[in-house]
Amino acid sequence: MMAENRPRSKKGRGRTKGTDRIRARLLTEWRGGIDPPNPNRNIHEPAEYLDDLLKAVGLTDGVDEQRLKDAWSTVAGEFVSKHTVPESIQGGILVLRVVQPAMKFHLQQMSGKLLSNLHRELGKGTVKKIVFKIG
User: What InterPro entries does UniProt report for this protein, alphabetically (predicted)?
Assistant: First the structure.
């Protein structure tokens, strides 16, 4: 009789085929079905939203980099285009990298003419200001 009052070990406590089946059924119901949901179901690629986002912000009407470089060589001339590089254009501000300070000063004096030539080549609202950077 003493053996009956002794507590059982945790390993053998009440685990039968019937309780395993009940446990499995409860877990299946709790998880929402036999097959677990696809973990990628709510993951989207940035490309799905990027075009709409750029349109909403107004950045889709940008200037192609190669088109800008071609236009710059036409607008500035051969000598100036060899000593300057159009780096970027954002918000109507064209950033030009200039080889030396003397060239920067010269181009700052000509910026009105350069802007009118850029308007002729790329369109009136494309470039509003030119910023020169030595580098």
Answer: DciA-like (IPR007922)
Does 86 fall in a domain? yes
23 located within any domain: no
88: CATH: 3.30.300.180
Neighbour-count burial of 55, counting CB atoms closer than 10 A to its CB (0-12 exposed, 13-18 middle, 19+ buried): exposed
Number of separate domains in the chain: 1
58-94 tens-digit pLDDT: 665 556 677 788 888 888 888 888 889 888 888 788 8
91 falls within a domain: yes
Contact call for residues 114 and 133 (beta carbons, < 8 A): no
In a domain, 94, yes or no: yes
Distance, CA of 116 to CA of 62 (rounded, Å): 18
Residue 72 C-alpha from the chain's centroid: 27
Give residue for tokens 């064209």: 94
